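Bumping my old thread because nobody answered last time. Still need a sequence for this structure:
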C-alpha cells in the first residue's frame, strides 16, 4: 500500500504540473497522462489501484473520491490505458504562474522562463523520493502537451519512467473540484 501512495503522490505532482504553468486560463482542467516504466511495476501498481477502487463498496469509493476532490484531484481512466485527472486552477494561481506544491512530502520545482510556446521544468521530492524533468508545449492558454522523465522509488527500488501528458481547459467553473492548497 505504501508504494501505491508514493505512486499516487508522484503521479499527482506530474499530472498537475501542467495546469499550473505560465499563461494558463483559470478554471477546471483535464489532464490525460500515459506512462511507461522501465520494469512495468508502475503500470501494475496503477492497475491494482484501479481494481481496488472498483471493488470498494460504493460508499467507501465515494468517500475516497470526495477526499481526493478536497485535495484538488478527480481521477479516472483515460483512453489508451492512460490516466485522466481533473484539477482546479484559481485566478490567483494563474497570475502567480504557480506550479503546485506536493501534498505529501517536500518537493522543490524549478521552471525555466517560457521560450516561445515551450517551457522546461524539473523537480525533486524527498517523500516519496523522486525527481524528474520535462518540457511543456503550449497551444494558447487552454491546452498543452508535456513530455517528462522521472525517477522514483517503488518497492524500495529506483524506477525510471517516461510520461506523455496533455491538458485542456474545460470550464471557468471547477464544480466540486477544490483548488489545491
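Sorry it took so long. Here it is:
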Amino acid at each position: 500500500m505504501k508504494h501505491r501512495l508514493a505512486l499516487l503522490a508522484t503521479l499527482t505532482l506530474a499530472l498537475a504540473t501542467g495546469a499550473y504553468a505560465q499563461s494558463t486560463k483559470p478554471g477546471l482542467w483535464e489532464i490525460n497522462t500515459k506512462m511507461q516504466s522501465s520494469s512495468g511495476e508502475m503500470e501494475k501498481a496503477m492497475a491494482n489501484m484501479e481494481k481496488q477502487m472498483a471493488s470498494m463498496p460504493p460508499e467507501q469509493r465515494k468517500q475516497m473520491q470526495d477526499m481526493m476532490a478536497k485535495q484538488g484531484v478527480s481521477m479516472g481512466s483515460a483512453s489508451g490505458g492512460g490516466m485522466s485527472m481533473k484539477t482546479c486552477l484559481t485566478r490567483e494561481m494563474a497570475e502567480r504562474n504557480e506550479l503546485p506544491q506536493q501534498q505529501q512530502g517536500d518537493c522543490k520545482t524549478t521552471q525555466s522562463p517560457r521560450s516561445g510556446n515551450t517551457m522546461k521544468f524539473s523537480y525533486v521530492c524527498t517523500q516519496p523520493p523522486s525527481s524528474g524533468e520535462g518540457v511543456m508545449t503550449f497551444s494558447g492558454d487552454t491546452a498543452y502537451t508535456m513530455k517528462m522523465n522521472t525517477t522514483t522509488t517503488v518497492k524500495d527500488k529506483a524506477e525510471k519512467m517516461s510520461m506523455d501528458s496533455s491538458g485542456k481547459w474545460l470550464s471557468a467553473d471547477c464544480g466540486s473540484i477544490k483548488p489545491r492548497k
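DSSP finds four helices and eight strands in the chain. Let me know if any region looks off to you.
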